[in-house]
Amino acid sequence: MDNFTTFTSRLAPLPIDNIDTDQIIPARFLKTISKVGLGDQLFYDWRYDAEGKPLPDFILNRTEGRAAQVLIAGDNFGCGSSREHAPWALTQYGFRAVISTSFADIFRGNALKNSLLPIIVPPEALKKLLAAVTENPSATVTIDLANQTLTLPDGSRAQFPIDQFAKHCMLEGVDELGYILKQEPAIAQYEAERELTVNTLA
Amino acid sequence: MSTKNGPASKPRTIIEKVWDNHVVTEREGAPTLLYIDLHLVHEVTSPQAFSGLRERGLKVRRPDLTLGTTDHSIPTYDRNLPIMDKVAEAQIVQFEKNCRDFGIPFFGPHSDKQGIVHIIGPEQGLTQPGMTVVCGDSHTATHGAFGALAFGIGTSQVEHVLATQCLLQMPSKTYEVRVDGTLKQGVGAKDIILNLISRIGISGGTGCVFEYAGSAIRSLSMEERMTICNMSIEGGARAGLVAPDDTTYQYIAGRPYAPKGADWDRAIASWRKLATEPDASYDKRIDIDASLLEPMITFGTNPGMGIPITAPVPDPTSISDPLERDSLGKALRYMDLPSGKPLLGHKVNVVFIGSCTNSRISDLRAAAQILKGRKVSPNVRVMVVPGSQQVKQQAQAEGLDRIFREAGADWREAGCSMCIAMNGDQLAPGEYSVSTSNRNFEGRQGKGGRTFLASPLTAAASAVTGVVTDVRTML
What we know:
Structural class of chain A: alpha/beta
Oligomer: heterodimer
CATH topology of the largest domain in chain B: Aconitase, domain 3
Shape of chain B: globular
Low-confidence stretches of chain B: 1-5
CATH superfamily of chain A: Aconitase, domain 4
Strand content of chain B: 15-25%
Mean pLDDT of chain A: 95
Largest sheet of chain A: 7 strands, mixed
CATH topology of chain A: Aconitase, domain 4
Strand order of the largest sheet of chain B: 5-4-3-6-7
Distance between the termini of chain A: 38 Å
CATH superfamily of the largest domain in chain B: Aconitase, domain 3
Number of helices of chain B: 15
Helix content of chain A: 25-40%
CATH class of chain A: Alpha Beta
Mean pLDDT of chain B: 96
Strand order of the largest sheet of chain A: 4-3-2-1-5-6-7
Number of helices of chain A: 10
């Protein structure tokens, strides 16, 4: 995982509640055995018509949305399936953060493992941000993970919460599997002390 | 949530007990390292995890605690025919190779044990009380019906569990869902869970694990409990469980991977200790009176948009919050439905009876009870997809396949099928389905398709009439 650095970006607003992972990446694209090409399939059924032509009104097809590295979405973003293809598609497209009032549990965990920062803000802050980007589509925010601050278009700063371990992993580019593998002695000890459950090889 | 090092005297819920039993390490400022007892793997969310293992030169640490099957992208037509979708075929072939290369037991397309992961775990006796169970699939909570802590994980975590049999996890909040009272005729487990989700919303359980309790839950069969636990994620909770009892033990006894002899006696003794202690407290709680429930149906584009089947579709203009109002308006536009009147009588193009929510033998029996001696409407395509080859064989032994065929329904091979529409089983744009599956998101059952989620009874009744129907008029 790459180290997550401070950045400034324009915003792509998608002010819809409960955007589920079937919208982020429809299931028919999950037949792949790699991670390649998922960015092109991001929000496919909202982004393209039946012939595969871009729908001009969709934010990712508009000039102001194209350069954005930050998505602003309604409440409970990423609900539904556990597919990690959702954050893969978002990051391959170029997003580095999603701002919402809340995230579904599995999506949030998957995002953090892929250098995609889920930023939770209060409802009033989300409304303010949406208003700012409506007024000026080229408005920007600056995201500083180390200080957990979001600098809004008017220059004001808001703090956002994040689990400290996830923050450490993102900032330092920590490989979580490597971290778990280092605990091998404890895992072996646990296995030695526990009762057998099932044996799928039996 | 209490921990190993917490005060010993604090009464614990079953959720906390199962968690505590699986703590490998706890470190300041880091998530708990949790041991996983059973890891179910399928073709869709695992390929990139196996690639990761190969890149690092890692093995699967415990193939004996791992099981693979193909369910999501596999066709449900005759298994002797070639797979028409070459991308799906390549994924299935790769999965088979991954299982072989890493020594993982595999119930392949031609195995008589093949089926949806969440059907075969319980069916084989692999899912047992007190276990931690994970799978790269959000409906893993199904296994919670046995008193297991079972939850869906992403592909990175699939790789972690394959390599280490462990996961880094933060503890969840506990949420008691107490359902008391007696269900009325025509009302079942699916209606209980759809009712819960319609009350708390699809993010009501975010950050929580549900414990389903109360007299109505106790009176349910294991298959009905699985239907309820299955849809915990639709209420936002990664996991939901039911404390084990004699119903649980009777279900498990004698299944292929269940403990035998002295091991069985020991297992039961330890399972009996799992139940939540009388004075334990939960972070949240909701009470549902089962006797007041009606058959439920969804009208919108998320599973929280559900109503009693006789109730009117809600009116967006009655909602004050603008985003919520927009969400409902957007959903009704997608569904092309008017507000203010019930769905009863609305036309149906497809009926799907299947999925990890409702494809077990009791679900098929319920559908057959309605379809027996009746014909499905000529305007409706009806697919009955058993959850596993074992369910299929049992249904055929009981003659249910004949009832379905004689009624004019299509009797298929086991798989996820039209629940996720990856395998060619799908709605055409604009079509309406009554589906026993778990998600009604836009395009979930095929691009442009529209889904009404309901019970197997409601689905079967609607198949006969060709319109959304209250099954109680046919019982």
